[in-house]
């Protein structure tokens, strides 16, 4: 039997709204049982989106070029580009912009916290290798790198402008003191 997470992830990837009543019906459980097992819709969406974010970060990190600031900037640029090109993610942003921003850019969900932790690990790795001289404490720097990425992913929702992964890469490179 499929788990709530597996079904929700499949629906998200298909661009389908994750409705808790529909999900309970699909799983053959009551809505109350579903809530007891997995929590509310926002918690489930956060876990689904984090699973996709974590996998995407890993792929883009393996493909990132260079070291130090260049590597971090390359990761951010390619990740932002991939997110902006992702049909399922775009559908979620378009259909539920307020929920998306709350889940993805605030402490209301696991996504931002875990993303910051992941970036902090990368920054620490580069600093320990001697390829990056962090201009700020690593936790603060990780937060700023993530906020830059978010700014260029959600630009259309926040300001109406087109998202631009190249600008995200340039901003991170500048923050970290890197050069082209």
UniProtKB/TrEMBL annotation:
Pfam families: TetR_C_36. Keywords: DNA-binding, Transcription, Transcription regulation. InterPro entries: Homeodomain-like_sf, HTH-type_TetR-like_transc_reg, TetR_C_36. Residues 67-177 form the QsdR TetR regulatory C-terminal domain. One of its GO terms (molecular function) is transcription cis-regulatory region binding. SUPFAM superfamilies: Homeodomain-like (SSF46689). Coiled coil: none annotated. PANTHER family: HTH-TYPE TRANSCRIPTIONAL REGULATOR BETI, HTH-TYPE TRANSCRIPTIONAL REGULATOR RUTR. This is TetR/AcrR family transcriptional regulator. It comes from Amycolatopsis suaedae.
């Amino acid at each position: 039997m499929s788990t709530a997470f597996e079904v929700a992830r499949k629906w998200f990837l298909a661009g389908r709204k994750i409705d808790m009543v529909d999900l309970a019906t699909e799983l053959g459980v009551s809505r109350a049982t579903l809530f007891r097992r997995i929590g509310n819709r926002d918690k489930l969406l956060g876990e689904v989106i984090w699973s996709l974010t974590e996998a995407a970060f890993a792929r883009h990190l393996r493909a990132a070029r260079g070291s130090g600031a260049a590597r971090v900037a390359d990761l951010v640029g390619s990740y932002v580009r991939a997110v902006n090109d992702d049909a399922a993610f775009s559908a979620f942003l378009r259909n539920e912009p307020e929920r998306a921003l709350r889940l993805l850019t605030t402490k209301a969900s696991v996504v931002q916290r875990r993303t910051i932790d992941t970036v902090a690990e990368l920054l620490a790795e580069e600093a320990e290798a001697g390829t990056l001289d962090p201009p700020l404490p690593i936790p603060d720097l990780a937060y700023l790198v993530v906020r830059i990425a978010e700014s260029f992913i959600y630009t259309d929702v926040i300001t109406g402008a087109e998202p631009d992964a190249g600008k995200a890469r340039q901003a991170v490179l500048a923050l970290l003191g890197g050069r082209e």
